[in-house]
Predict the 3D structure of the following.
Amino acid sequence: MEMKDIIKPENLVFKKTSLFTEKPLSYCPGCGHGTVHRLILETIEEMGLQAETIGVAPVGCSVLAYEFMDIDMQQAAHGRAPALATAIKRLHPEKFVFTYQGDGDLAAIGTAETIHACNRGENIIIFFVNNGIYGMTGGQMAPTTLPGMKTSTSPFGRDTEIMGNPLKITELVAHLPGTYYVTRNAVHTPAAARKAKKAIQKAFEYQKLNKGLCFLEFVSNCNSGWKLPPVKSNEWMVENMFPYYPLGDIKVPSL
Amino acid sequence: MGELRLMKGNEAIAEAAVRAGCDGYFGYPITPQSEVLEYLMSVKPYETTGMVVLQAESEVSAINMCYGGAGCGKMVMTSSSSPGISLKMEGISYMAGAELPLLILNVVRGGPGLGTIQPSQCDYFQATKGGGHGDYRLYVLAPASVQEMADFAKLGFEMAYKYRTPVMILSDGIIGQMMEKVDLFDPIPRRTNEEIIKTCPWATTGKTANRERNIITSLDLDSAKQEKHVFDLDAKYKRMQAEDTRFERIMCDDAEYLLVAYGSSARICQKTVDVARAEGIKLGLLRPITLFPFPTDEISKLAGQVKGMLSVEMSLGQMVEDVRLAVNGKIPVEHYGRTGGMIHTPAEVLAALKSIIIGG
Ligand SMILES: Cc1ncc(C[n+]2csc(CCOP(=O)(O)OP(=O)(O)O)c2C)c(N)n1
Ligand code: SF4
Ligand SMILES: [Mg+2]
């Protein structure tokens, strides 16, 4: 069989979602950010929501998310994305509104904005990529850094006596009456990514119901910050991050 | 002619914002401006015009809500007093960088720090020289009456959209708290989403097939582009200077001496002018209405006419630096004023004029 006989629409099994712009991703090879972007964009494309969606980018490695996502987006100050999204949704209740945030952005500098948006029950989605480190600024300790984990500002490992404990903010927001759907996923294997996508689809569906905030954590890797090759970083994530941040639904709507 | 009412300055500006067609107010309580949020909550514009009113968890959050709303092209407003305005500075800088229209009210109280809840004009530097980080300016209006609190809400929104920039109304505890008669303009309907899409083609209103995606950001990692962006901002600030500098001349035509004062202090100085004139002193008052752009040319002209100027501010003297720059050494320029929540009297101002300028 010739190549041209194989390249046919009916044989297509994989394509780049049309909602990715032509801009090459700025993420390190093997980083989870790109995969999470893709799953969100695929969902928006499949649900036909390009014109209906407004996204908010954080400060962190995904600060340039708006360069890659072919939808209207705003770029927030560090940690403030949920405040922007609150106003966007309240002033445009007919739109689908989401934030995309890292752990430093969401669970350190933006803790107040996160908790109060969740507690008010804003009808938005928060996509939370937890890699346990400040990727963008070169691998400093994050609120989610594991006990004993080495970072540039905890070079001998996180000593919880001195540096405090990792914050399980996802469990925390699940307790708040304003959250409707709270779940934790990963994107390191095809099966995990398929599961994560289902959660993303649900979150967009739920936004139509106006019943509160959907909070989707993705436990992810930072091979650069963790100083591990991509495959090793995923192994390290499974061994160390998953026991501390177990995958699965934390709060599901009582339908 | 609209509707005559007796109102506090803080209430007047809240009512005027609703009438101006404001889409969203986001605030946090602090004395002496909490009446803005209280008034809005009591008149429930969300049931009449559809305006969103939300008490945020902090000033930081409130200003960032404004960013989100303004990024959608919506007409948004926030208000606070000095310590809260300091917290808003991050968001104000981002909004100046992202070129977003906003109306900010600062009902100034005495500082630094928690200071006092009494009136002051000690935030002039913060309002006109930056406050937040970066090469930016705000369009700054200084109301001297409850009437102007109402009128400047409308004017402020006009300027915010004309220049795609945050506009600050720099008021103080006197203007915010005092009651005066106010003639309220007729309500203007809020713009529809279709009108916003037309008039704000840059806004994030949802990417439709007929246009590129819209992005609201203050970030440009390419320094050459960032420099160009700052030059563009500067061109905008120069246009403000040329087209929208505002001031009021009171008894200036034959003046031999001049007071320069804005806001509450200008009200006090007006009385000083009357008393001085009764004593035979030819005193005038120049009231800057916009603090940025500053009426530099007008003051420079007056420097060729009068023998000395006294900048009268409820602070240690901040605007006096801009007056001196305008006068450029031609005649003596001094400052007088009480601070920390104390208010000078017309007699104290006259005595200061006599000792520092006339006798000096
Ligand atoms: C007010 C402010 N403080 C600090 C920074 C510097 N800064 C940029 S990104 C970042 C941490 C981001 O970490 P995270 O949210 O975990 O995102 P990641 O890069 O790991 O995806 C910090 C501290 C900033 N931009 N603004
Ligand atoms: S630094 Fe870490 S989080 Fe950032 S792109 Fe690289 S791997 Fe991803
Ligand atoms: Mg991180």
Q: What stands out?
A: The radius of gyration of chain A is 18 Å. Chain A has one domain: 27-251.
